Amino acid sequence: MRIKEPRSTRLAFFCIYLILVLGGSSAFTGPPTSIDDTLGSALTLLWGAFFIVGGILGASSVLRGSWWVERVGLLSSGTAFAMYAVVITFLQIQQAGPYLMQLCIIAVALTTLTLRWTQIRRYAYDPEG
Asked: What is the pTM of this model?
């Protein structure tokens, strides 16, 4: 398969999507207790599933330019990050802890996904492909 231009951007997002799959998988194998205690087991698994689905859809579509599939992946991943942000915000309010750093990292991730959304929102497929 030929990777469409710009290759560096597509490869970077491909890696991001694979990391999301890995992170989502950890919600099934060893969920963070702060998240599991706050959301409960069922919602923690749903949270992980949003990351996994978003990562798989993004990784499977970013290199070939199927932007309509990638957008669904972005929405799924964004939902997972939003869930995470709500829980971390709740924990930050409820108890003092190292949660502000996590909120900053979540904000960077959501900003990155939003940037990708703005790059691909106009077309179903890469118009140059």
From this structure: 0.92
Is the pLDDT at 9 greater than 90, yes or no?
yes
Residues 6+ apart with CB under 8 A from 68: 124, 125
> 78 is written with which tokens?
């964004």
For 122, counting Cβ atoms within 10 Å of its Cβ (0-12 exposed, 13-18 middle, 19+ buried), the class is exposed
Helix or strand (DSSP H, E) at 48: helix 41-62
What is the average per-residue pLDDT within 47-74?
96
Neighbouring residues of 74: CB distance < 8 A, sequence distance ≥ 6: 54, 58, 113, 116, 117
User: Percentage of the chain surpassing pLDDT 70?
Assistant: 98
Is residue 16 a contact partner of residue 70, using CB atoms and an 8 Å limit? Answer: no
What is the rounded distance in angstroms from the CA atom of residue 64 to the CA atom of residue 129? 8
